């Protein structure tokens, strides 16, 4: 064991096994499982937060697209009416010129 300690004693993962004379397998296993469960829950929380971020971004983009569509519709209304008047007046002028 001393040769092992000399060779691997400075490696952190082995500290728990080498430095403790009262090493308890059950306690170590229980803590490891508990830490794994916590890590799993943290991973799930991180995934949930990521999903919420994506949903928030999507909702924000949909709101912006709706606002942009509204602006386009207002602009379209401002352009279509004068265009239709120009077309009608041009046709009227063409008829008047043909008659004269």
UniProtKB/TrEMBL annotation:
**InterPro entries recorded:** Cog5
Task: Tell me which domain of life the UniProt entry assigns to the organism this sequence originates from.
Answer: Eukaryota
Sorted alphabetically, the Gene Ontology BP terms of this entry are: intra-Golgi vesicle-mediated transport
Q: Which GO CC terms are listed, alphabetically?
A: Golgi transport complex
Full protein name: Uncharacterized protein
What is the source species? Cervus elaphus hippelaphus
């Amino acid at each position: 064991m001393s040769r092992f300690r000399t060779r691997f004693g400075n490696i952190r993962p082995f500290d728990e096994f080498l430095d403790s004379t009262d090493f308890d397998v059950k306690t170590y296993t229980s803590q490891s499982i508990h830490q794994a469960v916590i890590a799993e829950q943290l991973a799930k929380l991180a995934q949930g937060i990521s999903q919420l971020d994506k949903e928030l971004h999507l909702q924000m983009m949909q709101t912006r697209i709706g606002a942009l569509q509204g602006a386009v519709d207002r602009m379209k209304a401002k352009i279509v009416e004068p265009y239709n008047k120009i077309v009608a007046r041009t046709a009227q002028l063409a008829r008047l010129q043909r008659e004269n």
